[in-house]
Amino acid sequence: MIYDVSIDGHSYRLELNRSDGQWTCRLDNQSVELDAVLARPDVLSLRIGNKAYEVKCERVADDLHLWVGSVRYSAEVRDPRSLRSRSRSADDHGPRKLTAPMPGKVVRILTPEGQSVAAGGGVLVVEAMKMQNEVKSPKHGIVQKIMVKEGAAVNAGDVLAVVE
Amino acid sequence: MIYDVSIDGHSYRLELNRSDGQWTCRLDNQSVELDAVLARPDVLSLRIGNKAYEVKCERVADDLHLWVGSVRYSAEVRDPRSLRSRSRSADDHGPRKLTAPMPGKVVRILTPEGQSVAAGGGVLVVEAMKMQNEVKSPKHGIVQKIMVKEGAAVNAGDVLAVVE
Amino acid sequence: MFKKILIANRGEIAVRVIRACHEMGIAAVAVYSEVDRASLHVRKADEAYPIGPAAAAQSYLNIEKIIDVAKKSGADAIHPGYGFLSENAKFALACVDAGVKFIGPTAAAMEAMGSKTRARQRMEKAGVPFVPGISKGLESLAQAEEVAARIGYPVMLKAAAGGGGKGMRLVESREQLKSSLDSARSEAQRAFGDDEVYIEKAIINPRHIEMQILADEHGHTVYLGERECSLQRRHQKVLEECPSPVVDPEMRRRMGEAAVKVAQSANYTNAGTIEFLVDQQKNFYFLEMNTRLQVEHPVTELVTGLDLVHLQIRIAAGEKLPFSQEDIRLRGHAIECRIYAEDPDNNYFPSPGKITLLLAPSGPGIRRDSGMYEGWFVPVDYDPLLAKLIGYGTDREQAIGRLSRALNEYFVGGIKTNISFFRRILADPEFHAAKFDTGFLDRLLSRHADNPKPDAESQAAAAIAAGIFSALGADAAGRDERAATDGARKSPPASNWKSAARREALS
Amino acid sequence: MFKKILIANRGEIAVRVIRACHEMGIAAVAVYSEVDRASLHVRKADEAYPIGPAAAAQSYLNIEKIIDVAKKSGADAIHPGYGFLSENAKFALACVDAGVKFIGPTAAAMEAMGSKTRARQRMEKAGVPFVPGISKGLESLAQAEEVAARIGYPVMLKAAAGGGGKGMRLVESREQLKSSLDSARSEAQRAFGDDEVYIEKAIINPRHIEMQILADEHGHTVYLGERECSLQRRHQKVLEECPSPVVDPEMRRRMGEAAVKVAQSANYTNAGTIEFLVDQQKNFYFLEMNTRLQVEHPVTELVTGLDLVHLQIRIAAGEKLPFSQEDIRLRGHAIECRIYAEDPDNNYFPSPGKITLLLAPSGPGIRRDSGMYEGWFVPVDYDPLLAKLIGYGTDREQAIGRLSRALNEYFVGGIKTNISFFRRILADPEFHAAKFDTGFLDRLLSRHADNPKPDAESQAAAAIAAGIFSALGADAAGRDERAATDGARKSPPASNWKSAARREALS
Fold it and tell me: How do C4-7 and C27-32 pair as beta strands?
């Protein structure tokens, strides 16, 4: 299996195979001596050579972060041969979905359907605990669809709008 | 649903029904005001009237214990209309299975197949961490079958022998 | 001693008080709003009563309902925790009327210290230093200009009923005074229903240091040492320590004696905290009194070896303080981190949701006071404080070392937390040198890109782990747990949103 | 200071030492046997090296392999924990040869104190009181009869190399002497490969009280107060406290000074413990010295405010003790419970297996040193100590209250533990009154049916809960977790059984 992995913006090409519980691994075409144990769901005990790492996986809505020791990395994984592909990379082509970053209530729509929005421009406002948060467009485009009404309760990861 | 429940040897007749997440409950024919929330698997937050209890369920092999606050009760539940019935009550009729109380190694067979054994008599010996433990017959009878050999590794709950 | 105590609160502080009750052999009565049925404080209580919808005004702030539960349950005392009704004099009076002991000061003492301007007047009489300015609300712009000219710019406008930075304005020059006064007044009116605003000299880069006191009902008042609370974000405390790195025994004695004087001037009883501003020359000025248990009380407990909640209960039960001032000794150093459900990627916006995985630190010198558990849904309706992690050490360096170690062990999956922020603070050389003031954290946060350069090896480990998690798929993911526990509401009922309570301004 | 320390151990003590390393900015190297790959100490280390099969003799006791890892990893020191190689003089020498610092005493000091008879000879010279008897191995039955007649029955036969109650016999009269001597000798030979047995007066209903010492490599030795270790089951400590309820400051000073004398007589360095028997008149007698960190060291840490592992590392790195005897003050009270995987329904037989649910206590005054985690498979191959729960309080009563509260919060699902046993101990009136000796627990366990009469309400709650768990079925059960983690081996490989290691005799 080959993955394109991006860690804090740095891209890796990762080749991983597993047989009999043993992993073989190549990272950017370098062979890596790997021993991995899933201690709990979302918690890996890794040995790379004789170095040991506990890696925890933080999944919140569409955000993926990995904690290695004291450092928290943002991560993106793309699996070219799988449907589990995930990417938020800077691909400006095609429609982009805007999702709720956390549970909350939609209090205001800033850019209605059909209007244009700049990259980084606010499309709607979600509120939790009386704090308000602008959901911004990742690209310049037209707000193709708003999927929620003002006042609607939303969950983390719900699609709120599509920018084309 | 009706259950026969035994707690530390004291028997209860329990009627439980659930609709819309609300429980109705009768205990020994007395109506009980019940509110139950499963906080985690095996952890119940109960309100009986306004009394609050955290009850934890300890399942080890065939043993069932319930922890209520600081007290640990041994429990047996029989559901007369269900296949999930479980009972170790003093029913001397029919064959009885002897199970391993914990993972271990069978180090000795005390009563071979075909021989008779008294209630409380040892049938085989299981060892863990160099400590040895006799598995005893719950009733007087004949050792119908020994399912394991000396030296075998067994897991908690494995059937070791049948006494008829 | 009391037989049964009602805890009029939720979250970690309700759990902390329930624990104290159980440790003393006292039954604990919980109250809970609709969204809190699966909360930890309900699990741990001996009795639990629903008190209404999520909106605090209709539940945790509803005096009538809480007094009603106290009567129904037969509780002989009420502990208010912090926030909610803890500094509400009407509630303290309602307890008296209902014949239930309020574990805290009298309504009269609360009122004496509740308004900042009235408290300043009292300090003036008692001879306790406070920041130069006036002790009454401003009557006019002209008066404001006159006072500001006299004490010198920069000056601070503050709401008399204030807290949490609301109705507060820094004014650098006379030109800004009018618009600042107008906006401070209207913000104070909106936040507290009271537009009284007063003026005082602005202390530049102050430290915020507070003194814990305890007073029994027999006239004995003692101080238990200070807490350094300068590490604040948006006027909210984030990390506190005891002792303060800048307070020496002589300064501690002077601040402590001033604090005792403040408390005695109001006939104060039970636990209380006197907050001081400290300038760069180590002059200290009375700021305000908090007439309740503080969020950060554990650092004092670790360094004094005392249990403040046990002592609050004993005092309220009429016992005398079991020690005198000379018996109190600070030993070692303690630091507290307030763990919030906040998104560090999104300007520390609240991050409620289901906790899918919880790895909790423990071991030497680590205390954890928590209101969360794995599988619980952090409700959107209240303050996002999840837990407090407190590190103790023989000295400050060891406390920092232990806390850093414990923060590396702490992990909350399914929601975002500010844990990584604390790692950043504890790794900061100026924090190690104890060179900070109340503006430190805002400056630290503005230095955006100074994350410690991750080493290439651990970054490669992250890349490999990301691939393994993808390869293992759903089996390796905590969030798709099969067991549908009730602690995890898949989706909060929409009605919660209509009534979302204001985040409590706690300090 | 060291840059990298190898921890030649597993379980909670390996985790505890790794934490200390990280707190001090030192990298930690773990070693692990085949069945320990998923153990917590491997997860927490910076480097981890496999050292062979489950059998301790081929892994954790294999000096060559461990020295080899030390060289390969570039570790500059080795911490042995307790048990395994911690009191092995050959290992300490092998470290010297390899140029790696052994964090503990020298091989010579270990050997001086390792044999009980040689240690007694040394005490005789140093003038430290020890139990009347002989300081050499018995040569004949006739000699045994002569000495027993002189010191008076009852007498105790003990293996010189002994520990954990093996090779030990209480002899009430001359008639029993021959058969007891024979069986003690053969048991000692089997257990320690050495049949040397000596004789001493049997102290009836003694207390077991030990004194912690620390000695740097510059000639300074201090004592850190005593630990009360009388609560034992089958000669294994179960619960320890600091201070001892029967030791007053004067007795502490005398015991402490005797302990320092013992240590100095052997040129002892690093942390060590001198065990005393105390009779009913509070006379104390030297029993033996443990030349390593004790399992129960946390109670001393909580009451002194010091970190013994940090100090062990500093001493080994050549630092001077950062305090003198006068600086050491005991404050408050601490009690430790050793949480074992043991079946209370089955005579405390070991209960290995998968931990399906883990609820861990925390909060004020609670320290938890643990080697387990939810989803982990407790291996059948080693000592079943899972964790230590330590409660601290301003006084003994508060420590008991907090510990009782924390024990009610502690729950381990999937295996059985001795947690309920501690609840029983802490609820016992004689324990509260501190009226106990080394026979207390065995007497408590023999009083079979004195479980606190459960109240009808909580028993009814149990019945209802049992029904609800049945009704909810597998969804409510923790043990059927879908995610197949590697920490949980469904079935231990059969080969483990062939090589099951002897449970370490620790005290």
Answer: parallel
Among 2.30.42.10, 3.30.470.20, 3.30.1160.10, 3.20.20.140, what is the CATH number of D207-450?
A: 3.30.470.20
Instruction: Report how far residue C121's alpha carbon sits from residue C123's, in angstroms, rounded to the nearest whole number.
Output: 5
Contacts of C72 in chain B (CB under 8 A): 50
Upper half-sphere CA count for residue C135 (Cβ side, 13 Å): 14
The β-bridge partners of C367 are C390
List alpha helices for D428-488, DSSP H: 429-432, 440-446, 456-472
**Ordered domains of chain B (ranges, CATH):** 2-78 (3.30.700.30), 87-163 (2.40.50.100)
* Band of residue D501 on the pLDDT scale cut at 50, 70, 90: very low
Cβ pair D47, D29 in contact under 8 A: yes
Write the CA distances from D177 to C183, D157, D165, D287, integer angstroms: 95, 9, 18, 22
Is D174 labeled as catalytic in the residue annotation? no
Condensed to tens digits (0 to 9), the pLDDT of residues D319-361 reads: 999 999 999 999 999 999 999 999 988 888 888 899 999 999 9
Instruction: Say which range, A148-162, B84-98, C156-170, has the weakest mean pLDDT.
Output: B84-98
- How do strand B141-146 and strand B159-163 relate by DSSP bridges? antiparallel
Name all chains with 3 or more CB-CB pairs below 8 Å to chain C: A, B, D
Backbone φ, ψ for residue D59 (5° rounding): -135, -85
Element (H, E) at D363: none
d(CA D3, CA D202): 48
| Residue C165 · residue C442 · CB < 8 Å | no
Contact D500 B127 (CB under 8 A): yes
Q: Do chains B and A touch (3 or more CB pairs under 8 A)?
A: no
Identify the sign of the CA torsion C449, C450, C452, C457: positive
Contact criterion met (CB below 8 Å) for D31 and D129: no
B44 and D CB contact within 8 Å: yes
The secondary structure of chain A in percent helix, strand, coil, rounded to multiples of 5, reads 0, 60, 40
Q: Does the pLDDT value for residue A83 go beyond 60? A: no
C162 sits in which H/E element: none
| Upper half-sphere CA count for residue D7 (Cβ side, 13 Å) | 31
Could you give the CA distance from residue C428 to residue C424 in angstroms, rounded to a whole number? 6
CA of A146 to nearest chain C CA: how many angstroms apart?
19
Are D411 and B56 inside 8 Å of each other by CB? Answer: yes
Give the phi and the psi of residue C54 in degrees, each rounded to 5.
-60, -40
Annotated catalytic residue, options D227, D233, D292, D338: D292
Q: Name residue, tokens 């798929």.
A: C473
Residue C85 and residue C69: Cα distance in Å, rounded? 15
Model ipTM value = 0.88
Chain D: closest CA distance from residue C438 (Å): 27
CATH node for D132-202: 3.30.1490.20
Nearest-CA neighbor of C313 among D361, B47, D401? Answer: D401
For chain A, helix (H) and strand (E) counts, in that order, are: 0, 17
B154: CB partners within 8 A, 6+ apart = B100, B103, B104, B105, B106, B126, B148, B160
φ, ψ of residue D139 in degrees (nearest 5): -95, -25
Provide CATH code, domain D4-103. Answer: 3.40.50.20
State the DSSP string of D268-281.
Answer: --EEEEEEEEE-TT
**Residue matched to tokens 């501190």:** D434
State residue B81's pLDDT score: 58
| Tokens 């003994």 -> residue | D396
Would you list the domain boundaries of chain C?
4-103, 132-202, 207-450
Q: Give the model's pLDDT for residue B90.
A: 42
